Amino acid sequence: MGRKLLWASLVLAPVSFAADLLHAGDVALFVLAAAALVPLAWLIGEATEHAAEHTGPGIGGFLNASFGNAPELIIALLAVADGLPDVVRGSLTGSVVSNILLVLGVALFAAGEGRLDRSSLLPQLGLVVAAVLVFLVPSVPGFHGDPNRHSLAVAGIPVSLVLLALYVGVTAANLRRHRRLHAASGEVPTGWSLPAALGTLAVATAATALISEILVHSLDAFAKAAGLSQFFVSAVIVAIVGNAAEHGGAIVIARRGNVRLATEIAVSSSAQVALLVTPAVALLSFAVTPALPLAFRPVELVAMGAAALFVGFVIHDGEARRWEGVLLIAVYAAVVAGFWVAGDR
Fold this sequence. Notes:
Elements: H1 2-9, H2 12-21, H3 26-55, H4 57-81, H5 85-111, E1 114-115, H6 118-142, H7 150-185, H8 194-217, H9 219-226, H10 230-242, H11 244-255, H12 259-288, H13 298-315, E2 319-320, H14 322-342
Antiparallel strand pairs: 1-2
Helix pairs in contact: 2-3, 2-8, 3-4, 3-8, 3-11, 4-5, 4-7, 4-8, 4-11, 4-12, 5-10, 5-11, 5-12, 5-13, 5-14, 6-7, 6-12, 6-13, 7-12, 9-10, 10-14, 11-12, 13-14
């Protein structure tokens, strides 16, 4: 029954497009677009699980993160073009934090007991901490004066290049390791073919990107109507909805007992946002203007760095436990409360 309902609710995507063409109210568009992303997230999770049968959990998690973060990149660039730099930084911060606290927490709770691939997860959490330290270069000068001044955007160019190089180097080594492990496992795929899984991922991601555009353009009106700060909406609501693919996929997969794939999705997505999506947005923003400085606020830097360190401490023994999932969800709730108090810059 649940699967039939999810298949049926995919109709929300064309309904959202039609409502946008008919110029429905911004608040209605925001709610409709957010709802439409949920079944798309489920479909991406379904396709990822079938692709992982051919590639192994490590590469499957990377595929999910890559396809799932495409809308995040598009949302960020659209917000830059709309002159919403604080929304961009807030959504990027929220994406990093929600993936490694909320998504990982729900996945651990849903899966219960299991073994984790700590040799893969811990280095990726270390990448997030390294990214936060590198973000200090443009962020500290932004604590005083205009954080969106062009000089800080220029200062972010070498920072972005360093992060991209670090991500490519570590991820390439990690993927080679996962490929060897999967080849040695001798597992035989029983679900969709790899081309079918990848094709479904591509189509669902394209639809997610289009829905995400509707979401961004209606964000400001929704924030005002709901009486929420733009930072809170971007760091919590947009971050969760923009990463619905990873969120939904990890939870669906965890409920089926595949805790290794679910945790790979959550952590690899967080690392990819910090070291690939964020610097890519900063560099590409020079084409859409105004260029985006990577001048994060202290609350954003602390949230990302502390979340990665805390999760690393929780999973360092390589064992998944249900109570650890509850703990991570509780910590995420505390972070959300902090975002509420912080308000706009």
